[in-house]
Structures are given as structure tokens and as C-alpha cells.
Amino acid sequence: MSPGQQKKVELVGSFVASADLLLWDEPLNYLDIDAREAIEDVVLRDASTLVFVEHDAAFVDRVATQVVGLRPRSVGFQ
Questions:
Q1: pTM across the whole model
Q2: Cα–Cα distance, 52 to 27 (Å, whole number)
Q3: From the centroid of its chain, how far is CA 17?
Q4: For 66, left (φ over 0), alpha (ψ -120 to 50), or beta?
Q5: What span, in angstroms and rounded, lies between the C-alpha atoms of 32 and 40?
Q6: Are 8 and 31 in contact (CB under 8 A)?
Q7: pLDDT confidence tier of residue 15, bands split at 50, 70 and 90
Q8: pLDDT > 70: what percent of the chain?
């Protein structure tokens, strides 16, 4: 399977599992526009709590009810 097909299978698996909380790391990687829109529709209809990391600002704007932004900080080595 292609990376996009694998990602679709993983996402569908998370939707059909009974869960109160979903944790996703960049769910839209490798997905085409149609798949992205379908995922967005399901997320907006579903009642589960979803915590995700995603770089697609349009997706975040459409589906997120709260956003936590992280900014880099310098880490010094001693």
C-alpha cells in the first residue's frame, strides 16, 4: 500500500474503535484533498475528543476548538 493508503486505514481504524479520546500525529500526511475533506467532515461530526499535531493551518482552523501553540526555546548544553 502507498503511504496515503496506509494513513487512510489507520484513520478509519481510529474512527471505528470505541474511544473517548483520539491522539493523532499529523493525520493529514500523505492524504489527497478528497481524503482530507472526508477526514474533516468525520471529525466535525464525531463526538470524541481529539488531540492532534498538524501543520495544515486550514484544517486546524476548521476543526480545532482550542489551540496550544509551542514555540522553540534555546537549550544549552553544559
A1: 0.76
A2: 8
A3: 16
A4: beta
A5: 12
A6: yes
A7: confident
A8: 94
Would you state the cell numbers that stand for residue 55, as one nine-digit string? 501543520
DSSP code of residue 40? H
Tell me which amino acid residue 43 is. V
Q: How far is CA 28 from CA 18, 37, 52, 58, 63, in A?
A: 21, 10, 10, 11, 13
Cell numbers standing for residue 6:
496506509
Contact between 43 and 63 (Cβ < 8 Å): yes
Greater confidence (41 vs 19) lies with 41
Provide φ and ψ at 34, rounded to 5°.
-60, -45
CA dihedral sign, ordered 7, 12, 18, 19: positive
Q: Among candidates 69, 4, 65, which has minimal Cα distance to 39? A: 4
pLDDT exceeds 80 at position 33: yes
CA 60 to chain centre: 9
